[in-house]
Amino acid sequence: MTIREELEQREHEILAPQASFSDESKGRMTDEPQCDIRPVFQRDRDRILHSKSFRRLKDKTQVFIMPDGDHYRTRMTHTLEVSQNARTIAKALKLNEDLTEAIALGHDLGHTPFGHAGERVLNRVCSEGFKHNVQSVRIVECLEKSGMGLNLTWEVRDGMLNHQTSGTPATLEGKIVRLSDKIAYCHHDMDDAIRGRILTEEDVPEQVQRVIGRTLGERLDTFIHDIITTSAGTGDVKMSPEVAEAMRCLRDFMFEKVYTNPLAKGEEHKAEQVVERLYEHYLRHIDQLPDYLKARLELGDSRERIVCDYISSMTDRFAVARYEDLYVPFVWQ
Length: 333
Fold this sequence. Notes:
61% helix, flat, 16 helices, single chain, 0% strand
């Protein structure tokens, strides 16, 4: 018996009956030999962690565009916080921690430079639309590794695709990530807003504080404990109605005070202009795209889609650099 088979057997001994078991995965897009050490979901987690798309998250906006400070969140730190919250919940509910972590680490791979501002622009200018969750799956299926993709399991790709509020993940592990994503951004976006002097703790509505706590730490603790206690033994992953309503109120508060705040979002129109101009340029100059993207044309992808592939893969810094190269005059020394 290999180490992988021993680990697969251990899953059946210690995980809940409703868990996703590695040896019962629906499989990969392309069959390949099994690893003798790692079960499939652990292998998927490792592939995501070692991918270029994951590394680029460190220079992509979470909320504040190119902030002047070392402690503001990026898309990577957001992803890591989602992963940690999700793993805590999965372990407590005796669900598959490897699958949960793989989904969490991959859920935002498709995010554009400048966060949701960049996503809005691509969705507007591209006739086929653009959604970052769909792009995350596209990356692991056919763009990463110079067009080869990561060949992840069906369960991981399903969780990545359905991590948004409107999604319905097929696995309980995917449902954990879906809730953990909301918990993470409600928690750390408020922390960053306080750091940026846009909010204070006292601004949080009293009805929210009364239910989930009066500090950042208390609220995070309440969210995670509530999901665990509400979900245990039910065959589902959910919040209690009272805490779910408090989270909804908190999200509404954040949208009003932070996500649409002119001080926090004052630079977004510039970021949107960068993304739109880059899209227009590369649509006219397809020849300037990487070869692996141009090869997608022969496979039936549209010019619009591969331009979105290229621009959405950019970090904030790289997008600004390309914009300057194309549109800002060179200064002679």
